[in-house]
Q: What sequence folds into this?
């Protein structure tokens, strides 16, 4: 869906390049996370996709079309854009904010109104309550929900997100991440997601591109990066607890087996991850935990050997 | 004393009405001309950092020049009368409008403009739909300041034959005639207060609802 070939960008003639011969291929429906330390070029790369920054060399294609052959304004109207500070227009209502791109595309007003309400519903904000409010009346999390709705308004196939949840507190951030993943489950979008938070990358990414000094260091699925980091930099970057992080990406329900839990065994919800299960086993100092469903009924057990085997 | 002033006024009706008319004409015209120059220049300069820097510095110098000095300096260049006065008063009104236009536009949160651009608004669209409405309250504050400055500055037009209520004030001072002086001074004060009030009310009306405090 998005082809990036030999992309380079330099901001100063003498200093190091911001982006250095970057090549990436992002499939349709993927969430491609760009991550790396400060100054690695992740945001610059993202902003070259919708030509907010013009590349020096290299080609970017969306659905086979070279972005430099498309009028930048038209290009941006067909690509969703979400930024960390959201950038809601303070003098417009929530409804007017969300309607921005459809208005630019001259949809008829009835279609726009319907679309605005549908989108607000999708991001869990009651349209009758929020449509006519102003951004300053909203919390940070609500603002970013509107930001996402606004980016989705014209139903673009591609979305660019630059640390969209970075300004939120951890609880709100986790909630929005979950909601966004759920939302994407229903929509078919190709997402380029920039973050500096490795846990967010592991949670959100179909594939993760680790950048450093403007170069691509590793581009693979989260499990693969954790299991086989390409070099010491990546090893250090993902953290020394990468085995635990790998467990964090695996679901208890998948590794549970049939069986009766011993008396006094701790209980773990089937929807939790193996890291939480391991934590429960260690805390109770046992090798077997009961796996329960949402109603609390025991469905099986999870064992320490099974957890170990999951990493093999 | 007020009674005497009133007596003076009704004894010289045409003189007063003419002076009042000239004063208002000078003020309105100067404000309009200054706005017509300063707002477009400010909008253009706001998008060019170096031009903005230069413009702000020029405006700051302009702001510190005493009004009477500007009026006096115009005389050797343009002579006396209404038009030279208008020229000088327009110059005086420029700095506050220019500065406020620059500050108003540059003061908009960068991420708001970034989001607008990233969503596919044209530069013109951003100016019309985002920058102008958001900067307008600040620009208006500049117009308000300039209006007061021009109304008071127009008093000094009397010194270069421009007419206006300053004629009564200067004559009153020269002849030590307080009633005559008051016939100039009180209406000018009322004009200034009235303009301030009117602009203030307008400013509140044009502030977008999303930006109003509370």
A:
């Amino acid at each position: 869906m998005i082809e990036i070939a030999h992309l380079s960008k330099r901001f100063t003639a003498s200093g190091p390049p911001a982006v250095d011969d970057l090549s990436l291929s992002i499939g349709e429906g993927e969430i491609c996370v760009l991550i790396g330390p400060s100054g690695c070029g992740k945001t610059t790369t993202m902003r070259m996709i919708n030509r907010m920054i013009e590349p020096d060399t290299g080609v970017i294609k969306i659905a086979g079309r070279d972005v430099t052959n498309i009028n930048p304004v038209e290009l941006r109207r067909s690509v969703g854009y979400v930024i960390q500070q959201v950038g809601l227009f303070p003098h417009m209502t929530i409804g007017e904010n969300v309607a921005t791109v459809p208005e630019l595309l001259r949809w008829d007003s009835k279609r726009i109104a319907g679309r605005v309400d549908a989108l607000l519903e999708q991001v869990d904000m009651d349209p009758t309550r929020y449509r006519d409010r102003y951004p300053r009346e909203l919390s940070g999390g609500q603002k970013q929900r509107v930001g996402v709705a606004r980016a989705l308004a014209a139903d673009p196939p591609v979305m660019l997100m630059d640390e969209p949840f970075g300004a939120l507190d951890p609880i709100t951030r986790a909630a929005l991440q979950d909601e966004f993943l759920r939302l994407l489950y229903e929509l078919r979008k190709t997402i380029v997601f920039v973050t500096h938070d490795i846990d967010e990358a592991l949670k959100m990414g179909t594939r993760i591109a680790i950048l450093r000094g403007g170069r691509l260091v590793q581009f693979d699925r989260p499990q693969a990066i954790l299991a086989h980091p390409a070099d010491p930099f990546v090893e250090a970057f993902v953290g020394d607890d990468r085995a635990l992080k790998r467990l964090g990406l695996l679901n208890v329900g998948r590794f549970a087996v049939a069986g009766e839990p011993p008396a006094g065994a701790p209980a773990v919800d089937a929807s939790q991850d193996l890291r939480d299960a391991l934590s429960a086993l260690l805390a109770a100092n046992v090798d077997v935990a009961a796996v329960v469903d949402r109603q609390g009924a025991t469905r099986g057990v999870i064992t320490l050997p099974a957890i170990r085997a999951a990493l093999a | 004393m007020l009674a005497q002033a009133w007596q003076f006024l009704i004894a010289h009706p045409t003189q007063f009405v003419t002076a009042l008319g000239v004063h208002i004409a000078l003020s309105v015209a100067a404000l309009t001309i200054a706005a017509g120059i300063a707002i477009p220049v400010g909008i253009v300069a706001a998008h060019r950092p170096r031009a903005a820097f230069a413009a702000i510095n020029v405006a700051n110098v302009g702001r510190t020049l005493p009004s009477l000095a500007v009026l006096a300096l115009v005389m050797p260049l343009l002579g006396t009368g209404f038009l030279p006065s208008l020229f000088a008063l327009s110059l005086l009104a420029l700095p506050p409008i220019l500065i406020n236009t620059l500050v108003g536009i540059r003061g908009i949160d960068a991420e708001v403009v970034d989001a607008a651009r990233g969503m596919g608004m044209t530069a013109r669209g951003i100016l019309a739909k985002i920058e102008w409405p958001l900067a307008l309250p600040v620009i208006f504050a500049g117009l308000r300041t300039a209006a007061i400055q021009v109304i008071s500055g127009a008093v000094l037009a009397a010194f270069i034959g421009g007419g206006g209520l300053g004629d009564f004030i200067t004559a009153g001072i020269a002849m030590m005639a307080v009633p005559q002086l008051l016939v100039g001074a009180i209406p000018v004060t009322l004009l200034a207060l009235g303009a301030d009030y009117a602009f203030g009310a307008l400013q509140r009306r044009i502030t977008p609802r999303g930006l109003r405090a509370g």
